[in-house]
Amino acid sequence: MAKNSKIYRNILVIEDNHAILDVITLILQSEAYKVAGLNKSENMMEHIQSFNPDLMILDIMLPDGDGRDLLTQIRTNPKTAKIPVLMISAKYTAETIQHGTHRPNGFLAKPFDIDDLLDKIEGILAGKTY
């Protein structure tokens, strides 16, 4: 396959701040990703099944749940356990997000730099962990 040909990847973003969700969605769509956004965790597993994401961006502080508990839910389900997850948070740091035994593939503190976001997404999709 040619190195420059773009593979369309699905990214599911769960972020309760509409402005941040909109910005992430626009940026990723401009990079030729297919994006689905949720502003709460309700029905997350159904969305994962129907959208089949190649990567998830998951906020930790959601109005109806803790992103770290959602990560555990994703990791303990055989159908979703292999989906890479990039966690984002304004409150937590890479050192303080640890919660249970499951780790995300990467972490990004808000506010974040657009280039950092894209670099981490591309890295995680290529198999890296941050």
Please name the defining characteristics of this protein.
33% helix, 7 strands, alpha/beta, five-stranded parallel sheet, two-stranded antiparallel sheet
List the helices and strands and how they pair.
Elements lengths: L9 E5 L3 H13 L3 E5 L5 H8 L3 E5 L1 E2 L2 E2 H10 L8 E5 L16 E4 L4 H12 L5
Parallel strand pairs: 1-2, 1-3, 3-6, 6-7
Antiparallel strand pairs: 4-5
Protein name: Response regulator
Pfam families: Response_reg
Organism: Pedobacter polaris
What share of residues is helical? Answer: 25-40%
Q: Please, what is the CATH homologous superfamily?
A: Response regulator
List unreliable stretches of 5+ residues.
none
Structural class: alpha/beta
CATH architectural arrangement? 3-Layer(aba) Sandwich
Number of helices: 4
Distance between the termini: 27 Å
At CATH level 3, the topology is Rossmann fold
Average pLDDT, rounded to a whole number, is: 92
Give me the Rg, rounded. 14 Å
Strand content: 15-25%
* Large-scale geometry: globular
Sequence of secondary-structure elements: EHEHEEEHEEH
DSSP E strands, number = 7
The largest sheet has its strands arranged as 2-1-3-6-7
**What is the oligomeric state here?**
single chain
How many individual domains?
1
Largest sheet: 5 strands, parallel
InterPro entries: Bact_response_regulator, CheY-like_superfamily, Sig_transdc_resp-reg_receiver
Keywords: Phosphoprotein
GO biological process, one term: phosphorelay signal transduction system
Protein name: Response regulator
